């Protein structure tokens, strides 16, 4: 029989076009039909080429997309002529190969070919990682199936046996490929095959499973794989070329062929699919590494190594997991706590833990309790660690539980040339960069929330995303439990987040009208102006280098300097509060016994401490609470007739409630000079001082301390802004005590990991601080906040 060298490429294209790209299930059926057509055609070529030669020990095998059953209309054909080395002589083997390869070329199909023995397959796989991964899919097209099975099983056996050596090589190759081809989910012209989250990553998933190191995730990742294959097929049909890049000029044609309403919907689907595959791959690589380490270290049964991280969370094999006694079904705060801990430590949350958190923890109330709102602010303040943790939360559906509005911007493309990320990823990147600017604003949490929501209005059909996003942001801030004034601030930040950069680049900053417009954008508030200015810089920086050039930065700085001139720096501090002390508390203190009252407050505790006012009492109390593992959220310190009435709001990472009597005993011992109760504090400092994921990028820089002029007639008011850490309040209290200053009143607050503390201090005898003393105190406070506490 003589084969007519019909145009196989054209027949594959015709077959693809007849399959109705947007019909349900059309993609798998189309690829099956293309595979069946190609295989039958190659089998006919094989029979014609064999021409009476003995077939035993000879086979035509496929690798790549044809072997996997996912070939597109114009995909390459990767073939291997396999033999045992004794079936045919060298000349006959070359002749047979030519009689197979030339018909394929003549049929208009791109061909990658080789002639190998089983032994040569093994050698090639041992020396070439890419070839090894490809040969794992080796599949018989025609001829003796036993020779194909021998080659495939030999390569697979070596792959499993050498997994310990090959896994690091595979991870290194993955990272190099992803660096070359970028992140598929964030590209407007994505490489559907080689980018991070592309089709080749699914091949790597299969290779990891073949090494018996891990199971392959199913469900969403399989659907994502089908989505990318459908898009790849459509690119072949629209362009008439077997390429894997979805270019801008092909967006509309591919979108129409797949039944999308527009190109943005297509790109959103592609981005979602790529993110699912990328997340599955990254998690599978971690699973494989964990399995490999378990094999290496195991001598008998291996108990899990759980390193406590607080609140019932543990680090295990480089991931955050729930402890055995965590009450999933009763604590709606667990997803937030797990996210904060994971991001602060630069660790992912284990996929199983995420699935449990998503399916088993109850929904937060509306509005959120204060502790939940504060935890969310802490999460936004975690710096670069936020990016990966947020992606995990999003993949698990937890972000949608918190904010249904997020779905409208998830994976949404941005066609503005200055943007390098999808809308949702840009929002998260803006939060990270805003974290480096929190020291210049009075409310870090409002800046970070504004950064997360500033483009929430970039939804389908929105003509002015700032105007569309403002009410959405206000609704979210209200749900989070913010006060009406804070909600209004968030709404303003979102509505006006483009105003300052527009004024800076289009108007003369020396014109009084420009200054008036800039101040009006902030509602006439210097504090809100500072928030808006920081948001503007973070937004432009996150967009990309085209949006944040030296020229644009200079223009914005000039506008800011002009607008800020004449405004006093610093927030108006809260007034010193007058303490009210009950007779029972006065009698206890008069008898020389501190009185402590603890009240649970739904995930946190209020601790009221009554004691004789003395130099260093603030430092001792703060240090004692930190030594006992309590985290201070807010505090109000007041004094009445020599009695300190201090209100502390704390969390307990260990889950153990504060012990009233233990605190009383600690205060009594500290009052007589016994520093033993503070012994645990240094150990906790060392534990908390481990390297953080945000050590460089997103760092807010040096702490700030400033005197608020004319804030009080009876005390000098000092405002402190710094990165919070265990024991910081104790160190600040020591700094004041060593300077001989009395803390008459204080308002302690922590917003998104940043302290905003206001201290009313006096010298001995109640005198206001002299100018020289003010300078010394401010310098000592800054040194303390920056890690140089008094000795």
Annotation, overall tally of beta strands: 15
Low-confidence stretches: 689-696
Tell me the strand percentage band. Answer: 5-15%
* Integer average pLDDT: 86
**Share in helix:** 40-55%
Q: Termini separation (Å)?
A: 96 Å
Written description of the protein model:
With 791 residues, this protein is an alpha+beta fold. Among the domains are: 8-161, Beta Polymerase, domain 2 (2-Layer Sandwich); 182-297, no CATH class; 583-785, no CATH class. Strands 8-9-11-10-14-15-13-12 form an 8-stranded antiparallel β-sheet. A 4-stranded mixed β-sheet has the order 3-2-1-4, with helices on both faces. The chain has a 3-stranded antiparallel β-sheet with strand order 5-6-7, with helices on one face. Strand 8 (595-600) and strand 9 form a beta hairpin. Helix 22 (499-506) packs across helix 25 (550-564) and helix 23 (512-521) packs across helix 25 (550-564). The N and C termini lie far apart (96 Å). The relative contact order is 0.05.
Give the arrangement of secondary structure elements.
Elements: H1 8-17, H2 26-50, E1 58-63, H3 64-68, E2 77-83, H4 90-106, E3 111-117, H5 118-127, H6 129-135, E4 139-143, H7 145-161, H8 163-181, H9 199-210, H10 220-239, H11 251-258, H12 263-297, E5 307-310, E6 313-316, E7 319-322, H13 334-344, H14 351-360, H15 370-380, H16 385-396, H17 398-402, H18 423-434, H19 444-453, H20 465-479, H21 484-495, H22 499-506, H23 512-521, H24 526-543, H25 550-564, H26 583-590, E8 595-600, E9 605-612, H27 617-627, E10 631-640, E11 643-651, H28 660-671, H29 679-688, E12 704-707, E13 716-723, H30 728-738, E14 742-751, E15 754-762, H31 771-785
Parallel strand pairs: 2-3
Antiparallel strand pairs: 1-2, 1-4, 5-6, 6-7, 8-9, 9-11, 10-11, 10-14, 12-13, 13-15, 14-15
Helix pairs in contact: 1-2, 2-4, 5-6, 5-7, 8-12, 9-12, 10-11, 10-12, 11-12, 13-15, 13-16, 15-19, 18-19, 18-24, 19-21, 19-24, 20-21, 22-25, 23-25, 24-25, 27-28, 27-29, 27-30, 30-31
């Amino acid at each position: 029989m003589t084969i007519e060298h019909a145009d196989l490429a054209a027949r594959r294209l015709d077959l693809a076009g007849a399959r109705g790209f947007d019909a349900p299930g059309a993609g798998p059926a189309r690829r099956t039909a293309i595979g069946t057509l190609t295989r039958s055609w190659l089998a006919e070529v094989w029979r014609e080429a064999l021409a009476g030669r003995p077939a035993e020990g000879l086979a035509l095998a496929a690798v790549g997309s044809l072997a996997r059953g996912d070939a597109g209309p114009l995909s390459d054909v990767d073939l291997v002529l396999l033999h045992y080395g004794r079936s045919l002589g060298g000349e006959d083997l070359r002749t047979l190969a030519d009689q197979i390869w030339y018909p394929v070329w003549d049929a208009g199909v791109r061909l990658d070919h080789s002639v190998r023995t089983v032994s040569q397959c093994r050698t090639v796989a041992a020396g070439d990682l890419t070839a090894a991964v490809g040969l794992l899919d080796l599949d018989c097209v025609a001829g003796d199936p036993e020779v194909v099975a021998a080659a495939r099983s030999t390569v697979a056996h070596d792959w499993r046996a050498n997994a310990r050596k090959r896994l690091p090589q595979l991870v290194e190759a993955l990272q190099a490929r992803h660096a070359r081809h970028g992140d598929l989910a964030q590209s407007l012209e994505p490489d559907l095959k080689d980018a991070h989250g592309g089709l080749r990553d699914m091949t790597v998933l299969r290779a990891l499973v073949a090494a018996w190191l891990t199971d392959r995730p199913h469900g969403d990742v399989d659907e994502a794989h089908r989505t990318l294959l459908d898009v790849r097929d459509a690119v072949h049909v629209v362009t008439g070329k077997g390429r894997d890049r979805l270019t801008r000029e092909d967006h509309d044609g591919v979108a129409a062929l797949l039944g999308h309403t527009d190109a943005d919907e297509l790109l959103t689907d592609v981005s979602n699919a790529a993110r699912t595959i990328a997340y599955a791959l990254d998690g599978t690589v971690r699973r494989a590494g964990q399995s490999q380490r378990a094999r290496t270290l195991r001598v008998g049964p291996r108990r899990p190594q759980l390193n406590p991280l607080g609140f019932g969370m543990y680090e295990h094999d480089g991931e955050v997991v729930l402890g055995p006694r965590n009450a999933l079904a009763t604590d709606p705060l667990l997803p937030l706590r797990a996210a904060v801990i994971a991001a602060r430590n630069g660790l992912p949350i284990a996929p199983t833990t995420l699935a449990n958190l998503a399916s088993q923890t109850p929904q937060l109330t509306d509005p959120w309790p204060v502790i939940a709102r504060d935890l969310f602010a802490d999460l936004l303040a975690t710096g670069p660690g936020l990016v990966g943790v947020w992606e995990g939360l999003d993949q698990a559906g937890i972000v949608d539980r918190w904010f249904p509005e997020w779905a409208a911007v998830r994976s949404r493309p941005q066609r503005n040339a200055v943007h390098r990320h999808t809308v949702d990823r840009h929002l998260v990147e803006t939060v990270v960069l805003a974290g480096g600017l929190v020291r210049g604003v009075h409310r870090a949490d409002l800046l970070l929330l504004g950064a997360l929501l500033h483009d929430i209005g970039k939804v389908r059909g929105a003509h002015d995303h700032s105007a569309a996003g403002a009410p959405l942001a206000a609704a979210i801030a209200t749900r989070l439990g913010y006060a009406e004034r804070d909600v209004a601030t968030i709404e303003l930040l979102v509505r006006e987040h483009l105003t300052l950069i527009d004024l800076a680049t289009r108007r003369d900053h020396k014109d009084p009208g420009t200054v008036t417009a800039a101040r009006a954008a902030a509602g006439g508030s210097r504090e809100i102006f500072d928030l808006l200015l920081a948001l503007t810089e973070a937004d432009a920086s996150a967009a990309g280098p085209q949006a944040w050039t030296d020229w644009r930065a200079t223009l914005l700085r000039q506008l800011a300097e002009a607008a800020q001139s004449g405004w006093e720096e610093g927030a108006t501090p809260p007034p010193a509060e007058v303490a009210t002390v009950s007779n029972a508390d006065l009698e206890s203190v008069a008898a020389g016994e501190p009185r402590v009252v603890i009240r649970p407050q739904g995930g946190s505790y209020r601790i009221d401490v009554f004691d004789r006012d003395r130099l260093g009492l603030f430092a001792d109390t703060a240090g004692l609470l930190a030594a006992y593992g309590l985290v201070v959220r807010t505090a109000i310190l007041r004094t009445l007739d020599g009695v300190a009435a201090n209100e502390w709001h704390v969390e307990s990472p260990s889950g153990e409630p504060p012990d009233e009597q233990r605190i009383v005993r600690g205060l009594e011992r500290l009052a007589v000079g016994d520093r033993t109760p503070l012994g645990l504090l240094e150990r906790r400092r060392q534990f908390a001082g481990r390297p953080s994921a945000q050590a460089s990028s997103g760092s807010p820089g040096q702490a700030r301390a400033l005197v608020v002029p004319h804030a009080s007639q009876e005390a000098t008011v000092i405002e402190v802004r710094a990165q919070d850490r265990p024991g910081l309040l104790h160190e600040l209290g020591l700094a004041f005590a060593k300077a001989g200053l009395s803390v008459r009143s204080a308002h302690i607050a922590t917003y998104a990991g940043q302290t905003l503390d206001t201290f009313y201090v006096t010298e001995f005898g109640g005198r206001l601080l002299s100018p020289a003393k003010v300078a010394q105190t401010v310098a000592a406070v800054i040194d303390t906040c920056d890690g140089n506490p008094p000795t």
